[in-house]
Amino acid sequence: MMRKYFTYALLLGPLLGAQNKETENSVYQQNWVLSEKENEALAFDADIRLSESELTLDKKLFRLRKQFLSETEKQKIPLYNLSFNEIKPLIESSTLFKIIQDMPKGGLLHTHSGGVTDVKWVIATARKYKECYVYDQKDNDRFIFGQLAFFESGKVPEGFVNLDKKLTSDAHFEKELQELLILKRDNLCNYNNYWIEFEKRFKRISLLLPYRPFFKEYYIKGFQDLAKDKVQHVEIRFIFDELYDFQHGKYPVKTSVTDLQEIVKEVRRSNPRFSLKLIYSSFKFLDPAAIDKQLEMAFQLKKEFPDMISGFDLVADEAAGHSINSFRDNWAKLNELNKKYGIELPLFLHAGESNSVFNKNVVDISLLDNQRIGHGLNLIYFPKTMERIRKQGKFVEVSPISNQILGYVSDLRNHPARVLLSNGIQCSINSDDPGVYGYEGLSYDFWMAFVYWELDVKALKKLVFNSINYSSLNDGEKKKSVDYLNKEWNEFVQKINLTVN
Ligand SMILES: [Zn+2]
């Protein structure tokens, strides 16, 4: 109704000039303006003041988005009813995407070991190892079709064939294998149990990653892609495996950490400010006794590598795993463990990756020392908890594309994070498992958020800076990281203003 009235008022403006003035000064209109301001003051980015050049950029991005939307409308592309997979080429061809690729993104605070790197690269690199094999039989209890692994010759289990030979002899197999390693949501109406398919993707590469030579290549590639996409800091929910090779056998768990430290040094040669933290991750389907052991291991690792290990998380499908509350005895022991090891191990739990009100994991978050929450999608159904989390200054790591692919949100305009942001809950944008979803970097998620959530430069800037301010970098590292980000951000604003009309 209101909008219609304003449209008419605009159209008839010249005729109704006098009347307009009266409406503007009316108490009703003053209250309307006040209400709008009150809403704006609640938003997560209310404290950001843009510079003149940022305001210029804002106008440009607003116009580019408008042009993009009217162009898709003209071409009769039903943008809001298409999945990420379907619009990926459209995103890539847009000017907006090129600008977002150029935008410094600060930190990627939510991603997983095994989900970081492009699967096309995984296949191309794995086949170079003559000891790499692929399982090409029907799924059984031990292996599934398309599962990759390394074996010494003479010790290859039945059903596995050499990967390079298989790819050379069967022209269709590369495409088939790619499809087996990528999870797509082809259209927005085919909801099934995505988690079963999702976990199969991880299983297919799970035997590749602990092989130490491949492990090193995998993370160098993953980090370089992220750095190229203007991500300066990465935090991985890391599942610790014993690395191995055939000369030496198994290495101790800490070898993953020391190898990653070396890899970071290597990445820093071309990207001097690149940094990494690992969040020790275990699984929600384990029992409390097993989690006790996992917590001890996490404390031991953090004690040895305080600058590398930042905290603890439990991953896996929340609908199938145990509730956070069922581990309450484990959480109650955290203080004791803090004292025993003389260090703190904050929680970074996934909570509320769900559409159900029966999943109450977010309620636990407001009661635990858990500064950062993975997903928090159903937080909006627990208003008191949401308010508490806002007051506690707790933070939500949002992964728009992941949430669509795993079936939690269809039309991204309806993503719950919009409610969190307008209620003043601080968030950042993340990619969760880009390798498994068939893309690299963080630009796609920012593009989706910018277009579907009608963000402006103020919101983008706040999301980007949040990702460093709420990172687990220590105070000294954080200061350096923010200084660098500020410099990069200002350069980006100048560059786009100069090059884009
Ligand atoms: Zn996750």
TrEMBL record:
Its main location: secreted. Residues 197-486 form the Adenosine deaminase domain. Its cofactor is Zn(2+). It comes from the Bacteria. It catalyses: adenosine + H2O + H(+) = inosine + NH4(+). Keywords: Hydrolase, Kinase, Metal-binding, Secreted, Signal, Transferase, Zinc. One of its GO terms (molecular function) is kinase activity. PROSITE patterns: A_DEAMINASE. PANTHER family: ADENOSINE DEAMINASE, ADENOSINE DEAMINASE 2. Belongs to the metallo-dependent hydrolases superfamily. Adenosine and AMP deaminases family. ADGF subfamily. This is Adenosine kinase. It comes from Chryseobacterium gallinarum.
